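Lecture 7, part 2: worked example. A protein chain together with 2'-deoxyuridine.
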Amino acid sequence: CGKKNCHRTKTRYPDGSVRLRNPNIELMDQDILYHLALGSGSHDLVEMFGDIKFVCMGGTPKRMENFAHFIMKEIGHKIPTGTTLMDISQYSYRYSMFKVGPVLSISHGMGVPSIGILLHEVIKLMYHAKCKDPIFFRIGTSGGVGLEGGTVVISDDAIDGMMNHYYEVPMLGKIVKRPAIFDKRLVRELRALAHPEDPYETVTGTTMCTGDFYEGQGRLDGAFCDYTETDKMEFLQLLKANGVRNIEMEAIPFAALTHHAGIRAADVCVTFLDRLKGDQVNAPKEVLEEWQRRPQQLVARYIKSTCRPK
Ligand code: DUR
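Predicted complex, written out as structure tokens:
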């Protein structure tokens, strides 16, 4: 819109490409995206990634490789006969990355620091590659709060373990707070793609993002537990009363850093269990695998609704 204080003007060039909010980067003769095993000096990032429209992230390398194969079928993308999809970041030994036409599928590991580091480098990748209006999705797993296992939750809000709506980053000995905000229109668009005949529920709500899977999520089955089951249930009921539908470990930096970069983003997670009924993830492996495909299905519907194969 061109207005000086508008978030979009601050974060985007008029053509929709990502504006880096760090003046140091353009002064460097090359930028090494260390954890992706890519660099602006060693790779032609515009040639390799300039056509990216969607960046999909999830915890494990295998899930994101499967998603890459799945989305290839869904959008009808062809790769030359006899070739296979390659893990572009293979030699980082940190994250895995697959490219299928306009879609990047990347693993982010577990937790806030892991997805945080990845987001810095992927946002810079969007800038170096001059990608226009990329949309980021997290297709993840979570614990439900009063939801049956297998439910899909689209986050419309995020809180941390202290119920704050921002990402707190200690920088130079001071805490910097970045608001964790999701794109409300994207939430509505995704919700509208849930089919009434899907054999599971798709809901929207607040996602709690913690720094730990066990004590940080009020589990009773960690190596340590210094609270009672009553304390746990009181806390989970408080969360429920405050609109929290699921608990995971990445929503806060994902919402905050994409928002800070002016990138539309959505966190779509399946629940692996109802935390009001237990702590252990004990559904059979095949069931968990089927559940994990549900957020992928929803995101694929979105991608298909906006991009048609040429
Ligand atoms: N996750 C949770 N809590 C759950 C289920 C899944 O945090 O109860 C997510 C977040 C993290 C990984 O990346 O999955 C931990 O298993």
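Residues 66 and 293 are 9 Å apart (CA to CA). The radius of gyration is 19 Å. Keep this in mind for problem set question 3.
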